[in-house]
């Protein structure tokens, strides 16, 4: 205002250039850039020649006003009027351009400094590197960083951090490591944020050894890990299942006096759940609560996912209700875990209901959600619903993957529609969908299950022609199918083909061959394969041991089977229900039910008994005419939380009918139906025959009608029984066959 009055009254005493420069600087500090430009115009009109400092403020004002055309014009005017230029004014222009996405123009300004007899300084380089990082031009930023280091400039911590973070986000971890090494050589240690970000990237890229080395380097430079560092490292070990090392870092964290946050707890709970160690997962969950830490949706989802994987759905849903009761909103992963658990338990109605709730609450299902539901329907044999969901998934813009395709191919094969599965796979290939060996292995399994080895081999040739290599799983399926057809010649051809491709049989293939030989009583060959397997470094598993034990038991070598079982225990392998079933089956066949009962009780105590072992035992008692003990076992199943199946009931119903206890047989039949257990053709045949023998022909025909209503197909034996009526009272053997 004073300056304008002096101009208005034609005052001959004008302010000094230094005063005007200070005035403009003060105006710029309070961001009055418009007034700066107005005063500058007055200065020029007054015939005052601006100096470099005034030009610097004016150029900054134009940059802040985003008028870069005028800013550049002012640069040219300054170059004509000022004798001694400096780099500061150019840095102002470079900063303005970088701030407003004109980074390439800024680089041109920097490159033009040499012509003007000027050199870029540390501020020039720092500004440009930050600007390049802002527009994600990291390669050029690295070049400029190298250039400035060669010139002896030490980049600022902010510049290093920005470049490291940018390269890290782009996955250029090697470039980051190289950069950290370079700045370290000039005495600049990256800060804790940089180290944490870099350690995190290395862990995510699977470079765990490098991450640990960087952690050690960080400590050696006097930078102490914080809660973020420890959280990253603990999470990386938990993801790899290296829980002991994760716990050692948790101890280090506590020793350093750092408060354990929710993040390490989440990692530990997730890690133990994935390993199936729910006891320790629950322990950390409770410890977290005791430490007054609030579980997050990730905490709950990890734990309930673990419960679902172990089939403990009641615990999973209890946890789900607990989290929603605490106003912790479930997310897509939470619902997907629960839906997956329900599908695995064959509870499709409940799974679909939960899927509907999820959508109603605007929680959008992802590819995995659809995949688990599609797989559930496929395993249930409901291919109509599976393909409906597949179509819905595509309509919603979700991309099916090899997991989706494999489930659908496998589902079609499981319901006997192998030719449709092949057509579906060929259609996917024509549409250029990505397929892998898993998709083809599902088709191969379908062909082999139906004994169509030639079709399976043709599919293999197509698979290889389409650029997908045969793997051990594919060969394993072909070998298993060949073994079931007792085709030794083809088996040898497949084994040679594997060897030519540098593939060696694995546990699964050796076990298939051992099992096939054991089942036909060829124990010499089975044990020969066992020796080769061990010699090749393949470690037998429970299935391998059980295959040999089964062969020995069937051949009557129960003592040798027991020795093999003891060897199994020495190898830290626990026998399963099938292993024990081999012994019980043999003991029942021999009529040695006392020893069978003793073994069965041991199984129950070890929580290894299942429906199959009970059925073997019940059949043994019925065969010996000890029906009362068979009935006791049926009651004991419920007490031990094991559900009987159709075989359980039909075995006892058969024995009651054979004894003429039709009333008791019908009572058991009704009990079976009330429990929702679907009778099969054999079960109907037993009871229909019992009714005919007892002269209850009306009841027999009622049962036949019931068969049709339930969609159970009568066999030739069913028709024969009804045709004979009550004329053949001693024909139970034919019914059994």
Automatic annotation (TrEMBL):
<dbReference type="GO" id="GO:0003729">
    <property type="term" value="F:mRNA binding"/>
</dbReference>
<feature type="repeat" description="PPR">
    <location>
        <begin position="331"/>
        <end position="365"/>
    </location>
</feature>
<feature type="repeat" description="PPR">
    <location>
        <begin position="506"/>
        <end position="540"/>
    </location>
</feature>
<feature type="repeat" description="PPR">
    <location>
        <begin position="121"/>
        <end position="155"/>
    </location>
</feature>
<feature type="repeat" description="PPR">
    <location>
        <begin position="226"/>
        <end position="260"/>
    </location>
</feature>
<dbReference type="Pfam" id="PF13041">
    <property type="entry name" value="PPR_2"/>
</dbReference>
<feature type="repeat" description="PPR">
    <location>
        <begin position="51"/>
        <end position="81"/>
    </location>
</feature>
<feature type="repeat" description="PPR">
    <location>
        <begin position="86"/>
        <end position="120"/>
    </location>
</feature>
<protein>
    <recommendedName>
        <fullName>Pentacotripeptide-repeat region of PRORP domain-containing protein</fullName>
    </recommendedName>
</protein>
<feature type="repeat" description="PPR">
    <location>
        <begin position="296"/>
        <end position="330"/>
    </location>
</feature>
<feature type="repeat" description="PPR">
    <location>
        <begin position="366"/>
        <end position="400"/>
    </location>
</feature>
<feature type="repeat" description="PPR">
    <location>
        <begin position="541"/>
        <end position="575"/>
    </location>
</feature>
<feature type="repeat" description="PPR">
    <location>
        <begin position="645"/>
        <end position="679"/>
    </location>
</feature>
<comment type="similarity">
    <text>Belongs to the PPR family. P subfamily.</text>
</comment>
<feature type="repeat" description="PPR">
    <location>
        <begin position="16"/>
        <end position="50"/>
    </location>
</feature>
<dbReference type="Pfam" id="PF01535">
    <property type="entry name" value="PPR"/>
</dbReference>
<feature type="repeat" description="PPR">
    <location>
        <begin position="191"/>
        <end position="225"/>
    </location>
</feature>
<feature type="repeat" description="PPR">
    <location>
        <begin position="436"/>
        <end position="470"/>
    </location>
</feature>
<feature type="repeat" description="PPR">
    <location>
        <begin position="471"/>
        <end position="505"/>
    </location>
</feature>
<dbReference type="InterPro" id="IPR002885">
    <property type="entry name" value="PPR_rpt"/>
</dbReference>
<feature type="repeat" description="PPR">
    <location>
        <begin position="401"/>
        <end position="435"/>
    </location>
</feature>
<dbReference type="Pfam" id="PF12854">
    <property type="entry name" value="PPR_1"/>
</dbReference>
<dbReference type="InterPro" id="IPR011990">
    <property type="entry name" value="TPR-like_helical_dom_sf"/>
</dbReference>
<keyword id="KW-0677">Repeat</keyword>
<feature type="repeat" description="PPR">
    <location>
        <begin position="680"/>
        <end position="714"/>
    </location>
</feature>
<feature type="repeat" description="PPR">
    <location>
        <begin position="610"/>
        <end position="644"/>
    </location>
</feature>
<feature type="repeat" description="PPR">
    <location>
        <begin position="261"/>
        <end position="295"/>
    </location>
</feature>
């Amino acid at each position: 205002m004073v300056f304008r009055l002096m101009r208005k009254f034609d005052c001959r005493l004008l302010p000094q250039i230094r005063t005007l420069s200070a005035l403009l600087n003060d105006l710029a500090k309070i961001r009055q850039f418009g007034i700066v430009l107005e005063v500058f115009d007055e200065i020029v009109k007054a015939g005052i020649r601006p100096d470099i400092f005034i030009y610097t403020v004016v150029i900054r004002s134009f940059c802040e006003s985003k008028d870069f055309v005028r800013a550049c014009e002012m640069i040219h005017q300054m170059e004509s009027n000022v004798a001694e230029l400096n780099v500061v004014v150019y840095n102002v222009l470079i900063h303005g351009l970088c701030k407003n996405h004109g980074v390439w123009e800024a680089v041109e300004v920097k490159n033009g400094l040499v012509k003007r007899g000027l050199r870029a300084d540390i501020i020039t380089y720092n500004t440009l590197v930050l600007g390049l990082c802002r527009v994600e031009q990291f390669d050029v930023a690295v070049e400029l960083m190298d250039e400035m280091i060669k010139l002896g400039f030490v980049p600022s911590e902010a510049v290093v951090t920005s470049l490291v973070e940018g390269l890290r986000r782009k996955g250029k971890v090697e470039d980051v490591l190289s950069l950290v090494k370079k700045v370290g050589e000039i005495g600049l240690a990256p800060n804790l944020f940089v180290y944490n970000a870099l350690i995190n990237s290395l862990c995510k890229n699977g470079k765990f050894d490098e991450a640990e080395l960087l952690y050690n380097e960080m400590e050696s430079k006097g930078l102490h890990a914080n809660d973020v560092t420890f959280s990253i490292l603990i999470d990386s070990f938990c993801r790899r299942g290296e829980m002991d090392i994760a716990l050692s870092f948790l101890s280090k964290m506590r020793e350093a006096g750092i408060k354990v946050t929710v993040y390490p707890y989440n990692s530990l709970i997730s890690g133990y759940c994935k390993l199936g160690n729910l006891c320790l997962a629950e322990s950390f969950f409770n410890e977290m609560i005791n430490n007054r830490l609030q579980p997050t949706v990730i905490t709950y989802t990890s734990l309930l996912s673990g419960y679902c994987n172990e089939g403990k759905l009641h615990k999973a849903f209890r946890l789900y209700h607990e989290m929603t009761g605490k106003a912790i909103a479930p997310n897509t992963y939470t619902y997907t875990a629960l839906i997956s658990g329900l599908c695995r338990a064959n509870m499709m109605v409940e799974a679909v209901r939960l899927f509907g709730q999820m959508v109603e609450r605007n929680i959008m299902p992802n590819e995995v959600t659809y995949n688990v539901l599609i797989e559930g329907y496929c395993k249930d044999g409901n291919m109509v619903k599976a393909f409906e969901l597949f179509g819905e998934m595509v309509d919603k813009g979700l991309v099916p993957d090899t997991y989706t395709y494999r489930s659908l191919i496998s589902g079609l094969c499981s319901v006997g529609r192998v030719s449709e599965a092949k057509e579906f796979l060929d259609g996917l290939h024509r549409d250029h969908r990505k397929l892998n060996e898993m998709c083809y292995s599902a088709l191969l399994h379908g062909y082999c299950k139906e004994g169509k080895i030639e079709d399976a081999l043709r599919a293999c040739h197509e698979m290889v022609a389409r650029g997908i290599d045969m793997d051990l799983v594919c060969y394993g399926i072909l070998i298993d199918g060949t073994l079931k057809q007792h085709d030794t010649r083809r088996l040898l051809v497949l084994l040679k083909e594997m060897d030519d491709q540098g593939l060696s049989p694995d546990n699964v293939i050796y076990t298939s061959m051992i099992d096939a030989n054991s089942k036909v009583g060829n124990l010499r060959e089975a044990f020969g394969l066992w020796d080769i397997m061990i010699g090749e470094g393949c470690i037998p598993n429970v299935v391998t041991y059980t295959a040999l034990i089964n062969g020995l038991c069937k051949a009557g070598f129960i003592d040798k089977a027991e020795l093999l079982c003891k060897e199994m225990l020495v190898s830290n392998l626990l026998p399963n229900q099938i292993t024990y079933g081999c012994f019980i089956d043999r003991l029942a066949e021999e009529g040695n039910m006392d020893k069978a009962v003793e073994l069965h009780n041991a199984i129950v105590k070890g929580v290894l008994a299942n429906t199959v072992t009970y059925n073997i035992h019940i059949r043994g008692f019925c065969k010996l005419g000890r029906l009362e003990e068979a009935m006791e076992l049926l009651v004991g199943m419920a007490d031990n939380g094991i559900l009987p199946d159709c075989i359980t009931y039909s075995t006892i119903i058969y024995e009651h009918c054979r004894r003429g206890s039709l009333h008791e047989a019908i009572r058991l039949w009704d009990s079976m139906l009330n429990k929702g257990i679907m009778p099969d053709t054999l079960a109907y045949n037993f009871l229909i025959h019992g009714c005919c023998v007892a002269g209850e022909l009306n009841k027999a025909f009622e049962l036949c009608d019931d068969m049709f209503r339930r969609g159970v197909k009568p066999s030739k034996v069913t028709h024969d029984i009804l045709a004979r009526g009550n004329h053949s009272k001693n024909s139970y053997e034919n019914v059994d066959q």
